[in-house]
């Protein structure tokens, strides 16, 4: 099993974020303008796109759009198989732990043997090439 490096993981996350960003930015620009239907519509659409890509698609295949573009997959550390949508949601929530320790958790792949963030360690996942 070849573990993905930090730069490739970061680039994949950037691609995933850029795909959902227009919806959230559009909603942000409409905030306070009185156009509630469009505001909420864009916000919900952004959440649906993010959820489909990061949780449903990545959970079932191991690849979000960004990971597919960069040639990496999210899998269970023990099974080397996709982790499923529920565990993909938990992993994204576990990234809050990476945030709490001053974002150092996101840098752990730079020096850990299995190239894991704190969220990966908690959820038993790895990102492979």
From TrEMBL:
Topological category with respect to the lipid bilayer: Multi-pass membrane protein
* Superkingdom of the organism of origin: Bacteria
Asked if the Swiss-Prot or TrEMBL record annotates the protein with the keyword Cell cycle, the reply is no
Question: Which PANTHER family has this protein been placed in?
Answer: PROLINE-RICH ANTIGEN HOMOLOG, PROLINE-RICH ANTIGEN HOMOLOG-RELATED
Q: Which residues form the RDD domain?
A: 4-123
**Under what name is this protein listed?**
RDD family membrane protein YckC
Where's it found, cell-wise? Answer: Cell membrane
Alphabetically ordered keywords of this record: Cell membrane, Membrane, Transmembrane, Transmembrane helix
Query: InterPro entries from the entry?
Result: Pra-immunoreactive (IPR051791), RDD (IPR010432)
Q: Does the keyword Aminoacyl-tRNA synthetase apply?
A: no
Identify the Pfam families for this entry: RDD (PF06271)
Q: Which residues cross the membrane?
A: 12-30, 36-53
């Amino acid at each position: 099993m070849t573990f993905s490096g930090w730069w490739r993981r970061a680039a994949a996350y950037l691609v995933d974020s850029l795909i959902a960003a227009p919806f959230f930015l559009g909603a942000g620009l409409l905030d306070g303008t009185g156009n509630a239907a469009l505001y909420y519509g864009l916000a919900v659409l952004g959440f649906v796109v993010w959820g489909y890509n990061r949780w449903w698609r990545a959970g079932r295949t191991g690849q979000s759009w960004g990971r597919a573009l960069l040639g990496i997959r999210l899998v269970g550390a023990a099974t080397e198989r996709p982790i499923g949508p529920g565990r993909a949601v938990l992993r994204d929530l576990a990234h809050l732990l990476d945030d709490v320790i001053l974002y150092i958790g996101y840098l752990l792949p730079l020096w850990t043997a299995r190239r894991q963030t704190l969220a990966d360690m908690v959820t038993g996942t790895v990102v492979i090439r």
